[in-house]
Design brief:
Layout lengths: L3 H15 L5 H24 L19
């Protein structure tokens, strides 16, 4: 996880790129939510490999088989 200053800088860059202006009085709350989201993404990303997810494959008969 990045430091709080690095996280705040990353957040500011992403908001600027998206054209979003976060009101000053809400910035701390939104930044805390962003930090939590980053932690959750890191937890899920490192916890499971793509091979752990069971794939569901539906096979329909081809139109020629009907």
């Amino acid at each position: 996880m990045p430091s709080p200053d690095e996280l705040a800088a990353e957040f500011d860059i992403l908001m600027r790129r998206a054209g979003i202006t976060v009101p000053v009085e809400r910035r701390a709350t939104v930044l805390a939510s962003y930090a939590d989201l980053c932690e959750q993404i890191a937890l899920l990303h490192n916890r499971y490999a793509h091979t752990d997810e069971p794939a569901n494959i539906f096979r329909l008969p081809s139109p020629e088989a009907s």
